[in-house]
Amino acid sequence: MTSQPSTPTPIPTIADLAKVWTPWQTVLSDQTRLWLRGQAQALAALERFNEDWLRRRRAGVNAALAALDRMNATDDAAERNAIANAWATEAAGRWVEDMKSMADCMEAVTKETMASGGEAAERSASAAGGLRAAARATAAAARTSG
């Protein structure tokens, strides 16, 4: 049994490869741009969260110091108890604000991520059509050059 020599597969030209690369370049560039834009917006949301959190921490420390000074200024146990209770109530309010601020931050980051993901998916689908067309053109060119 003799084997037939195989026909060599034609090597694509640079022009053929460029037809395939251009849509990929668009997809990668768009994806990177969207990711970086999302990162910038996430960092902005985190910056707002951190600024608010630090403001509440400063208020908490100042309130604790003021409560301590008022408690040390009196010998009345009932008054000390009232001061401590008032401080604890304010601290709980700051904690609630922390949780609300954290939820707002996560919501902002999630919404931006979802929006960027939808835009990226649309762009990728569009570029995929270009890739399919380029692949067909490359295959046709390979068939005719062989």
Structure description:
The chain has helices spanning 14-72, 77-145. It is mainly α and 146 residues long. It has one domain. The chain is rod-shaped. The mean pLDDT is 80. Keywords: Plasmid.
What's the helix and strand layout?
Blueprint: H1 14-72, H2 77-145
- Number of separate domains: 1
Structural class: mainly alpha
In DSSP terms (H or I, runs of 4 or more residues), the helix count works out at 2
Detail the poorly predicted runs: none
Sketch the major β-sheet: none
Question: So what's the overall shape?
Answer: rod-shaped
Which sequence of SSEs, written as H and E, runs from N to C?
HH
Radius of gyration: 32 Å
Q: What oligomerization state is this entry in?
A: single chain
| Helicity, as a percent range | over 70%
What gap, in angstroms, lies between the N and C termini? 26 Å
Q: What is the mean pLDDT?
A: 80
Strand content: under 5%
Total strands: 0
